[in-house]
Amino acid sequence: METLCNELKVEIFRYAFIPIALVLLNRNWYSTFQDPHARAEWIIYKYGRAHALFHAIRLGNHFVTVEVVQILAKKAIILRYFMQRLMIQFGTYDPKLIKLIEMRSRYNINTDIPPWASELPLPISIKLLAEASNKRE
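RESULT FIELD:
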């Protein structure tokens, strides 16, 4: 396993159901996990071209980087609905506003989990918007 070339490691990583097991195996697999191409290939294979960007954002700041977004924009489908939801969900999570909504609402609202794109870093969201506008043209 130590002498496998990088392309072969990316292919093995791509077909892993849960890649954390490979990442914890040794440092070489961890370096493969840090490769943006490996991350993009894995998420496209696991979730498909249409849902890859949504699940990349859902997996959080430790998974998605600007390089991963750039690769996914070339290989995945950027849906208009995804960009609309991203714009609605983007921004800081205001706990005071959530508490007010919770007090005024008669329905049970799960306030423990912030919205899926509320903690997305600004450079990643800017890159997503730029790639989406480039695809639209």
